[in-house]
Amino acid sequence: MKVTVFSEHGKGHRENPEVVKQHPHGIQQTLKELFDGAGMHTTAVWQDDGDDGSMLTDEILNGTDVLVWWGHAMHENVSDALVEKIVKRVQCGMGVLFLHSAHMSKPFRRLLGTGCTLKWRDNDRERLWVSAPAHPIAAGLPEHIELAEEEMYGEHFDIPTPDELVFIGWFAGGEVFRSGVTYTRGKGKIFYFQPGHESNPSYHNPDVRKILVNAVNWLAPAFPIGAPVECPHVAPLENTGK
Ligand code: ZN
Fold first, then answer.
1. How far is residue 59's CA from residue 197's CA, in Å, rounded to a whole number?
2. Which of 109, 122, 131, 176 has the fewest CB atoms inside 10 Å of its own CB, making it the most exposed?
């Protein structure tokens, strides 16, 4: 399976000791090492300050089975042309894992069609509940996971009603959040997962790492990704005289 991890990696990450402590070579590299270690073939690309997503070339995108997207401060720099290419490939069968602040990324909002806004606050304690224990993304997990420090994301989360709600986050400040949700668009699957603030250690938590690997496996297309579907005019299957 070919996985591509896209993450912001501008000065705000490279020169912030709190981020470097968690991700010495960027979030994209932390996740690449995780997925490679799970037997996947992973390409890491990143977005530098002001970049429009140019590292995610047509060649890389067209060879991607599952795209993993982390973004925060540079969503608006991503080119609309790239967003349309991502949407088309999802419709053809590519899976996408949107992480944490990617809830406001252009491809996520374009695929879901809603505002995707939420409430937030830094450094809260989170208890992440498994709300769909039979779902493959929750395989091998306890009934809940404790994250000592994570960014609070709270309802209302302006998303369409999910196909499946796999995780519910509860925060020490009292808020709750739909922290793991699935969708399909065309032939492609989508999973959004809330933990993963850049200065918190969530992507080093063994249960979170299990979720991320489970998610990419679940998102993998079940068949070779084909060409975009047109709207063909067709002859009737039965003889209707037309
Ligand atoms: Zn964050």
1. 29
2. 122
User: Whole-angstrom Cα distance, residue 141 to residue 208?
Assistant: 9
* Structure tokens given for 153: 């994301």
Query: Quick one: how far is CA 160 from the chain centroid?
Result: 16
pLDDT tens, 170-222? 999 999 999 999 999 999 999 999 999 999 999 999 999 999 999 999 999 99
User: Given CA atoms 65, 70, 16, 169 in this order, what sign does their dihedral have?
Assistant: negative
Residue 228 alpha carbon to ligand 1 centre in Å: 34
Q: Give distance in angstroms: CA of 198 to centre of ligand 1.
A: 6
Strand bridging mode 176-185 / 188-193: antiparallel
d(Cα 110, Cα 87) in Å, to the nearest integer? 8
Asked whether the beta carbons of 103 and 116 are under 8 A apart, the reply is yes
- Strand ranges (E), the chain: 2-8, 41-47, 66-70, 95-99, 119-130, 144-154, 164-171, 176-185, 188-193
Q: Could you tell me the distance, in angstroms and rounded to a whole number, from the CA of residue 199 to the centre of ligand 1? A: 8
Distances (CA, A) of 120 to 3, 13, 143: 29, 20, 25
67 with 88: CB under 8 angstroms? no
Dihedral of alpha carbons 199, 205, 209, 215, sign: negative
pTM over 0.85: yes
Kindly give the distance from the C-alpha atom of residue 222 to the centroid of ligand 1, in angstroms, as a whole number: 32
Nearest CA among 203, 149, 213 for reference residue 26? 203
Distance 93 CA to ligand 1 centre (A): 29
